[in-house]
Design brief:
mainly alpha, two-stranded antiparallel ribbon
């Protein structure tokens, strides 16, 4: 008995069931429900866009086709590098890093496989530029990437400071005066209090 055949046919039937379920949900309008509730839909979280390899295939770095298409349209390699770096790494990773890292400043190096895939892509798409690892134009790309990361870090710091200032401007809950009940209200000056009642 050929087990690989039965496994693949089982997998195909499961895939077709998933596809049918997804189609039914999309046609029923249920895929719009998360957006109506203010949460991102599964469609936005898991893009169905085809992925394309960035740089040498053996590096196995993939990005959505549209991202690579836009990057290829940039007039200079450093503009393409600035654009791609935001898609290669999350903001959380970028704000704690720079291209080669700097331990004295607490900066981690970005994943060298992804950075080299980016450089491969730039070499392929901008053949007239000096994009070897020690090349003048690659150094300009590194500077552009690090500049993008610094501005991202600055924006994040500004947002954090703004939130902190708003929090400090609010009086603490213990200093807020509690609402007074009618029985605990103090009499105003000039009011007479009749104690004989």
């Amino acid at each position: 008995m050929d087990l690989s055949c039965s496994e693949s046919s089982e997998g195909n039937s499961q895939n077709s069931q998933k596809t049918a379920t997804t189609d039914r949900l999309q046609n029923s309008g249920w895929d719009k429900l998360p957006e109506a509730l203010g949460t991102p839909s599964v469609k936005k979280l898991q893009s169905l866009e085809p992925m394309e390899l960035l740089g040498s295939p053996w590096r196995n770095v993939q990005l959505p086709f549209s991202v690579i298409y836009v990057a290829k349209g940039k007039s200079r390699p450093e503009l393409s590098a600035r654009y791609l770096i935001r898609h290669l790494f999350t903001e959380d990773v970028l704000v704690k890093s720079n291209v080669y890292g700097n331990l004295e400043r607490g900066m981690s190096p970005l994943d060298c496989n992804r950075i080299n895939a980016l450089r491969d892509f730039l070499q392929e798409n901008y053949p007239s530029f000096d994009l070897k690892e020690t090349g003048h134009d690659w150094k300009a790309c590194v500077a552009a990437i690090n500049s993008t990361i610094r501005s991202l870090r600055h924006d994040l710091k500004k947002t954090t400071i703004g939130m902190r200032r708003r929090l400090l401007a609010m009086p603490p809950s213990s200093k807020r005066s509690p609402p007074q009940s009618p029985t605990s209200a103090k009499p105003c000056e000039g009011d007479t209090i009749n104690l004989t009642d």
